[in-house]
Amino acid sequence: MKDGVVLNINGDHYKFSLGDRRGQIPYSETLVQTLRDRIGLQGKLGPTLREKIGLTDPEPPLSCGEGFCGRCAVLIDGKAIASCMTLTSECGGKKIVTLEGLRNKKTGEPDPVVNAVLDYPGFICRFCTPGIIAASQSLFNQNPHPSESEIQAGLAGNYCRLEKICGIRTQLVAHLAKVSASH
Predict the structure, then answer these.
(1) pLDDT at residue 47 above 60?
(2) Which of 78, 86, 128, 149 has the most CB atoms less than 10 A away?
(3) Sign of dihedral through CA atoms 111, 75, 106, 61?
């Protein structure tokens, strides 16, 4: 589409005009801005996933805005990408899956990899959870049976504010390795 972009997000198509006029998406707008401000997707766990892990606290902030933390990660053509560092104008024709889209559309049940991550009880503040889910899904998309070292490398781009307290990445690597071996 000339001077526009069609986004495939969670299987739904959104058509946007690009430019500097009112109502258009500026060429400099990032995907996280489009997802949050124009489409209303917040990259949040949603009520089903929040109930599964017993959360009652409010969601933490969306992301760092610098591509450092991994919290805003979405899957673009199956790979985890920082949406705060990705221009919306460059996403036309790509398949984008947000945290909200990692579920069965008919039943609403989370994907098996999401369940595997959420079944791990070690998360404390949940800031890193969305990025870890996206990174785990990306990893298992590319390799259904990753080794422990591949899982470690796949989760490396996610910042955990409480890593020294909960050791989430180290412990989650072992947990996901067990999940990988059992499938």
Answers:
(1) no
(2) 128
(3) positive
Domain with residues 4-182, CATH architecture:
Roll (3.10)
Nearest Cα residue to 8 out of 138, 97, 75:
97
Judge contact between 113 and 137, C-beta under 8 A: yes
Residue 131 near residue 157, CB atoms below 8 Å: yes
Domain boundaries, given as residue ranges, for the chain: 4-182
Q: CB under 8 Å to 164, separation ≥6 — which residues? A: none
Q: How far apart are CA 84 and CA 28, in angstroms?
A: 11
Cα 131 from Cα 43, distance rounded (Å):
9
Cα separation of 17 and 40, whole Å?
18
d(CA 82, CA 31): 9
What is residue 116's three-state secondary structure?
Answer: helix
What is the pTM (predicted TM-score) of this model?
0.84
116, amino acid identity = A
Q: Which of 137, 132, 131, 124 lies closest to 167, judged by CA?
A: 124
SS3 22: coil
The answer on pLDDT for 121 being more than 90 is no
| Rounded-to-integer distance, Cα 12 and Cα 96, Å | 10
Helix (H) or strand (E) run with residue 7 in it: strand 4-9
Task: Decide: 118 and 52 in contact? Cβ < 8 Å.
Answer: yes
